Structure formats: C-alpha cells, structure tokens
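User: Here's a protein and a ligand (glutamine). What would the complex look like?
Assistant: Let me lay out the input and then the predicted complex.
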Amino acid sequence: MNYSDILEKGENILADAGIDDARGDARLLIEEASGIDYSHLMISMSDEVPAEVEEKYRGYISLRKKRIPLQQIVGYTEFMGLRFHVNENVLCPRQDTEVLVEEVLKDIEISRDAHDNIPGLADEGPLKVLDLCTGSGCIAISIARLSDASVTACDISEKALEVARQNAYDNQANVRFFQGNLYGALPQADKYDIIVSNPPYIRSDVIPTLMPEVKDHEPRIALDGSADGLKFYRKIIEKSPDYLNPDGRIYLEIGYDQGAEVINLIRSCGYEDFHIIKDYSGNDRVIAATL
Ligand code: GLN
C-alpha cells in the first residue's frame, strides 16, 4: 500500500468512530509513525509504505478509534513552545491554559522592572511562585523556563508527579515538587509571592456529557470539581493568605461561567484588585487578584 491509500483508510476508520477531524488526526499519526513531516509526505504519496511504518500506523489508528486522545497516543504535546510528555495519569495541557501562564509571566516581569526602578531597594532574590495541582507540570515548568522565578509545584497524585518530574528534567527546568493535598504538601512556613493553579473545576454532573477522549481517558481527579465545581477554588483561596507574602497575587484558571462565583470567594478572603482575563475564544478564563 502507498501513503495515499493508507491515509485514506485511516481517515475512514476514524471518521466512522465519530472523530471530528479524522483527516487531521490520520495525517498526524502517519507523520508520527513514519517520522516524516506531512509536507515531505505529500511529495511521496505514491511511495510504498515500509512494513514497520504501516504496522505502527495501524496500531495508532486502532487506539485513536477507541477515542484515546491523540496526545496520549503519541505521548507528548506542545505547551508554551515546550514539549511535555503526557499519559493517562495527567490532564493534557490545553492551549487556553497558556493564557494563565502568560499572565503570571507578565506579573513577574512587571515586578522585576518595578523593583529595578526603585533605587536602594535590597534585592530579595527571585519571586517565589507556587503551582497547586500541577499535573503534567506544564504551568510550573513553563514559568521556570521562561522567567527567573523560583518555582514550587505540588499534586496529590504521585503518578502525575512522576510525569511532572520527567517533564522538568527533559525541559531542564528547576522546579521543587511535593506530593500531597494542596497546601498540605508544602514545608511549614513556606511563603510565596504568586500562587497559580488550574485546579479540577468541572461540575460532577457535567462530566458524563464531555467528549469520550476527556471523560473516559483523562484522569477524573484532574477534572472533577465536585457538585458545584468550586471545591478546589474554595480550598485554594481560603488558605492562600497564609502562604502569600504581603501584596501576594493569585492567578486561577476558571471555567467560562465561573467568574462571578470565584470572584465572590476571592472577595470574601480579603483580596483586592481582582480582574478576569479572557482566553483566545473570548471566554472568561483566568482570575487574577492581589491580597
Ligand atoms: N495544572 C495542570 C494543567 O494545567 C493540571 C490541571 C489539572 O489536573 N486540573 O494542565
């Protein structure tokens, strides 16, 4: 069989399985199986596919047919221009979460510039950032790589932390990792300048309505925010003042319809200056607030 035939076959199988972008996925999987990018494959469409490439590709297609996320099949995804290893123990990093990271990076830059412009101020060293519910580590690792902040991250799942540690190593990022339940994971008396989190925030009753890739193959503990979706916001926000330095900031990813509820929680815990930032599709995505 040649590349053209094999691609068409794969595309048809995926389309029958109800996959929206069957053609796009089939292309990506043939690129992955052959190690050749699509622009080069286009000029080799009538070439015979080597047996080992065909076998690999068929394996990928049969996994994708079962609605296993593309990122889990190939084993990685891109986030903030970096490559992250993913598996069934972590949430696949989402593009929308880049908005959260970018806001934190802006904050770090502004803080550094402000500090540099006040003569005589003692250098207190890099800003300290804490990432709660780190999962694959995508937020913590991007911040560590793209700024000079000192980054700590935690997660309750040891299996997620294995992935996060591997990602930190592969991306040569210096992040301290701790396993445990939110702040319970941290050394006593730790203080931070910025807390960031993309916690599980989907309402339990919404989970069965999600795409099979998400509801059947991504870890439920990374998705489920309890009956009202707000369990982790409550826990993170209520205790955050104990872990923040004066003027500390908090940055939280939120669901498109959770802005008002999370702002209420933030307000009741003594935060000022809160604002909501939208994602690339124009939905509310991030809440930023200063203590
Ligand atoms: N912090 C990770 C991410 O943004 C994991 C989030 C989660 O598991 N809810 O991808």
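Summary: The pocket of glutamine is lined by residues 91, 93, 97, 133-136, 138-139, 198-200, 222 (CB under 6 Å).
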